[in-house]
Write a structure and sequence with these properties.
Catalyzes the NADPH-dependent reduction of N-acetyl-5-glutamyl phosphate to yield N-acetyl-L-glutamate 5-semialdehyde. It catalyses: N-acetyl-L-glutamate 5-semialdehyde + phosphate + NADP(+) = N-acetyl-L-glutamyl 5-phosphate + NADPH + H(+). Pathway: Amino-acid biosynthesis; L-arginine biosynthesis; N(2)-acetyl-L-ornithine from L-glutamate: step 3/4. It is found in: Cytoplasm. One of its GO terms (cellular component) is cytoplasm. The structure is a single chain. With about 300 residues, the protein is α/β, with parallel strands linked by helices. It folds into two domains: about 120 residues, NAD(P)-binding Rossmann-like Domain (Rossmann fold), CATH 3.40.50.720; about 170 residues, Dihydrodipicolinate Reductase, domain 2, CATH 3.30.360. The protein contains ten helices and 13 strands. The protein has a seven-stranded mixed beta sheet with strand order 8-9-7-10-13-12-11. A six-stranded parallel beta sheet has the order 2-1-3-4-6-5, sandwiched between helices. Helix 4 links the parallel strand 5 and strand 6. Helix 1 packs across helix 10. The longest helix is centred in the C-terminal third of the chain and has 16 residues. The protein is globular.
Length: about 300
């Protein structure tokens, strides 16, 4: 039996390059990409995607929809790394640790949509707590996140590593219209009744994310405290390979969070920080925006799909 053919469409962007790097030495698959002269040829792209077993789309949203629309071979399975299908019916959300049975759903799916990098942290923190009823579905959730500049793709890398790098800002908050495309994805998959306030930022480092969600205990169910929230997350991820929850005594000893701490891995670290006197809790996630937030997640999903 021949090895499955995996076609990467859009392998020149930051996510596509990292996926290619992670897969190129593997012998259990046949990796295929188009030569430079054929990448923008709709006919060749359609031929390639219909000839593969699994296609990984690392494309802008419109191009990803076009690629999926070109599929006529019912045997072709897709992992879409764009945001085009993350809230669309018929697509399986590619966050294996999100819920019991999610990894199995991904393994059997024909259409898998990779989570966004920021939503990976936000959904990872919020969904187990919302499903357990510890955070009310209508809680006014606010999320702040800082990512490495590679989160902007090639434009971000060029700004910070190109000829004008000396003029690149050390830190920039964006999404000030509060209309970021990740907010509906977070709301849907975290199980929130209201759109969260999401404030993202870029720092002057290549990759890595710290994402935080502040909570006021007075707005939660009676008796819920930091330990309750921590125990829920710890139980949810007890068997997860790539998501770990810091013990409360370890998080209590920390004085800062390094967004680059897990760079180069497909891991995510969650923490619960609480101030009993003030009744405040801070949920936090640290992970690599190009690892668990993008290419690492795509490869994890690919491995699950190859089991079938």
């Amino acid at each position: 039996m021949s090895s499955p053919v995996v076609f990467i469409d859009g392998d020149q962007g930051t996510t596509g390059l990292q996926i290619h790097e992670r897969l190129r030495q593997r012998t259990d698959i046949r990796l295929f990409t188009l030569p430079a002269a054929e990448r923008k040829d709709p006919r060749r792209r359609a031929e390639a995607i219909n000839a593969c077993d699994i296609a990984i789309l690392c494309l802008p949203d419109a191009a990803a929809r076009e690629a999926v629309g070109a599929i006529v071979n019912p045997a072709v399975r897709v992992i879409d790394a764009s945001s085009a299908h993350r809230t669309q019916p018929g697509w399986t959300y590619g966050f294996p640790e999100m819920a019991p049975g999610q990894a199995e759903q991904i393994a059997n799916a024909s259409r898998v949509t990779n989570p966004g990098c920021y939503p990976t942290g936000a959904v990872g923190l919020l969904r187990p707590l919302a499903q357990a009823g510890l955070i009310p579905a209508d809680y006014p959730v606010s999320i702040h996140a800082v990512s490495g500049y590679s989160g902007r793709g090639r434009a971000g890398v060029e700004e910070y590593e190109g000829p004008g790098a000396a003029n690149a800002p050390s830190y920039q908050v964006y999404g000030l219209q509060l209309a970021h495309k990740h907010a509906p994805e977070i709301q849907l998959h975290a199980g929130l009744a209201q759109r969260p306030i999401f404030v993202p930022a870029y720092g002057a480092f290549r990759q890595g994310i710290v994402l935080t969600v502040p909570l006021a205990l007075r707005q939660l169910a009676p008796g819920v405290d930091g330990a309750t929230l921590h125990d829920c997350l710890a139980r949810h991820y007890a068997e997860a390979t790539h998501v770990k929850v810091l013990p409360l005594n370890e998080s209590g000893a920390l004085t800062h969070l390094d967004p680059q701490a897990l760079n180069g891995t497909n891991d995510m670290r969650l923490g619960v920080f609480h101030n009993v006197e003030n009744g405040h809790v801070l949920l936090a996630a640290v992970f690599d925006n190009l690892g668990k937030g993008a290419s690492g997640a795509a490869v994890q999903n690919l491995d699950l799909m190859l089991r079938r």
